[in-house]
Write a structure and sequence with these properties.
The chain is an alpha+beta fold and about 140 residues long. The chain has five helices and four strands. It has one domain. The longest helix is centred in the middle third of the chain and has 10 residues.
Length: about 140
């Protein structure tokens, strides 16, 4: 994005507005963007009701993609991915860590939300954006 901004003599923020992500598909209530430093690498749209996800990779570097070479990850793949972005459930001080995060149970999604999926091993992290679910209800 920096290169595009420099080419057109504008800021990254202006370019970013024109390159914004498309609206989520019906049923999607969570968009996670897998980031390397400040660069988006994968965009993961999650439909909890249907337990489906779609992924758009923004890099050719498979090491910076959320699911590597896997272009069609499953619900189970999402669980594995989130667990890899958390401290292990078997860790001795897991109850203390959960308490520090304000959590009662080990839930990889909630842990990743609180920690942004950051680990000590890399510069990757997760950005979360929630969308309201369209409900079929009568308007008053």
């Amino acid at each position: 994005m920096d290169e595009i901004a420099a080419q057109f003599g504008t800021s990254r923020q202006i370019v970013g507005r024109y390159l914004a992500e498309p609206a989520p598909a019906e049923g999607v209530t969570l968009r996670m963007t897998y980031m390397w430093r400040q660069r988006p690498c994968s965009v993961i749209d999650v439909d909890f009701m249907r337990q489906r996800l779609t992924v758009r990779n923004k890099t050719d570097d498979v090491l910076h993609r959320a699911f590597g070479v896997n272009q069609s990850p499953t619900w189970e793949d999402l669980d594995v991915f989130l667990r890899e972005r958390c401290f292990p459930e078997s860790r001795g001080d897991v109850k203390v860590l959960l308490r520090q995060l304000g959590l009662d149970v080990y839930d990889p999604l909630q842990i990743a939300e609180k920690t942004h999926g950051r680990t000590a091993d890399d510069d990757m992290w997760l950005r979360f954006r929630y969308f309201e679910r369209e409900l079929d209800h009568e308007k008053h």
